[in-house]
Design brief:
By secondary structure, the protein is α/β, with parallel strands linked by helices. The chain has a five-stranded parallel β-sheet. Helix 1 crosses helix 8. Helices cover about 45% and strands about 10% of the residues. About 5% of the residues have low confidence. The chain has a single domain, classed as 3-Layer(aba) Sandwich (Rossmann fold).
């Protein structure tokens, strides 16, 4: 298992390096803003560190949803798993979290038709390996990729990747998988329209209220 993770780390490092050498540094400004905030007032330790993409980024009032817990939200933009790997030293590793909660992966599929389930899951495994290397005893929770009306064409990939990640995480201690995918489907198996904003991708408060019920049981007090 360790050798496989080391191989994945090397492979993903080459992939990330090539991607960023050609495309520059997406989300650079957002990451620099986090660094600026940290320089003015560094976050307290023992918080639940939320990392990932826009579904967490846009959860501006996440602390209000979980008043009994201390939340540090370091999600940014429409990030992919590759972006979290790239910016791990800026948005993940500086802190001393009680727990790490992650929502990321759906943008990897949306960014390119060439991204297969295997590719996305291997990206996740690489990132998880980096997190465990840095924080071997910190509990980790992964919030599954969600279904949304604007990305119905990707739902089969999301579901397959979710299943693979859930199975893989079950082999590790101090990990949780939060299935929001199936909770967000209507009786016909379609994404619920009324919990999304006009863009049919990001959620309204009603959607986040649903997430609260699913995430809160895995949060560490």
């Amino acid at each position: 298992m360790i050798k496989r993770i080391q191989f994945l780390l090397f492979f993903l490092w080459l992939t990330v390096s090539a991607a960023y050498s050609q495309a520059g540094f997406p989300f650079w400004k957002e990451v620099q803003q986090f660094k600026k905030e940290d320089s003015l007032r560094f976050p307290a330790s023992n918080q639940a560190l939320f990392i990932g993409s826009s579904s967490f980024t846009m959860w501006k009032d996440v602390q209000d949803f979980f008043p009994k817990y201390k939340i540090l939200n370091r999600a940014f933009g429409g990030s992919q798993l590759l972006d979290l790997i790239r910016y791990r030293y800026e948005v993940i590793f500086p802190y001393q979290p009680k727990q790490i909660v992650m929502y990321c992966g759906e943008n990897d599929f949306a960014a390119s038709d060439t991204v297969t389930v295997i590719i996305a899951v291997n990206r996740f495994k690489t990132l998880f390996g980096l997190l465990r290397e840095k924080y071997p005893n910190v509990p980790f929770a992964y919030v599954s990729m969600k279904p949304s009306p604007s990305r119905k064409h990707l739902m089969k990939k999301y579901e397959a990747a979710n299943d693979s990640i859930a199975t893989w995480l079950s082999g590790f201690k101090k990990t949780k998988f939060v299935d929001v995918f199936h909770a967000m489907l209507d009786e016909k198996g379609e994404p619920m329209e009324d919990i999304f904003l006009q863009d049919r991708l990001h959620m309204k408060g009603k959607g986040y209220a649903m997430w609260k019920k699913l995430i809160e049981p895995v949060l560490k007090k």
